[in-house]
Amino acid sequence: MRRWLFLLAAALAAGTLPGPSASAQQGGSATEGVYADSIVFGQSAALDGPAGELGRNMNLGIRAAFEEANREGGVHGRLLRLRARDDGYEPEQAAVNTRELIALGVFGLIGAVGTPTSNAAEPVAREFAVPYIGAFTGAGLLRQPDQRHVVNLRASYDQETKEMVDRLVEDLGFRRIAVFYQNDSYGQAGLNGVRRAMDSRRMELVSEAAYMRNTLAVKQGLLDIREGNPQAVIIIGAYAPVAHFIRWARKIGLDAVFVNISFVGSSALLDDLGRAGDGVVVTQVVPFPGDTNIPAVARYQAALREVDGRATPGFVSLEGYLAGRLVVEALRAGDAATPPTRASFLRTLNDSGPIDLGGFVVEYAEEDNQGSDLVFLTVIRGGRFVPVTRLSG
Q1: The pTM is what?
Q2: Structural domains of the chain, with CATH
Q3: Over the chain, what is the mean pLDDT?
Q4: What count of Cα atoms within 13 Å lies in the side-chain half-sphere of residue 356?
């Protein structure tokens, strides 16, 4: 009995229990995840393994936004629910989870984590015309003009990598830049972004190397990177192997500035690096999670405390929260007298003009599914992240 209760509690916490019964489905379409008393969303993300911290924090942020709305009565009388499934940051499982969530009846898919997983899951969402919302990736494969079912919150990897190269060249005067990347579609997207930024300046990488996803096999790549004697290494990876790479780089005396893309998972990277983190740079696509002068951040912190009083504010859970808030605002903008549909939800986003989430503004159009173009700069100093506007020596 205790084991059963434990599993039940875990399922409730993860949002994996079945949705409302057929008797509760009046007033909406069960196949579209709309019920008389609720609207159900699905999430397939890494909840365990080397990238698990990313999925857990996206999930936490989304739930904070949904539960905040639910405390206010939900959306036109319907509460927001989230079903979450672990894909381990593996594309095949992400596709399986996505099909199963759609078959169970979800209104939309939200908070996917990663480029390779989105590359596998998005075509499934497209097949069934299910909104694919707020994926934790800046890859171009989700930013095509005909992907009207895709709703990106964040800036692209091209925008992040351009900011990296601009700051390294203009602020520090660096010319010798290397790239260490994850050997899959995510790493390739970041690598291509860096190359485009370098090409625009008629510069070439001094070295590049890759590692395999969901491993810590970084040492050979580190040695290859060192051969180019770089002044800076742009890293396109996840927090566990990235931290491993940076610690080993410090040990072998590679004197370079390490610059990471937002997907790395800033809080987890900081925890993993410890004292080896000072000077490490991370580009971000959401505001600083400690800046309560921004209304959205103040609301996020309050909502986060309600869900988990022990949780520390961070960039990933803030991104999840903003994705959740976007869903709430779009649904509330719909007709209160008519149950929402997937098509009406997407139409509302495209027709709304700028949507202010509280100092973080997003805007969509018929052939533009990316809400924000903002890129922020942060550096680890004294064991914590600080926001900066430029890099210093």
Answers
A1: 0.91
A2: 19-155+291-362 (3.40.50.2300), 157-284+376-388 (3.40.50.2300)
A3: 92
A4: 4
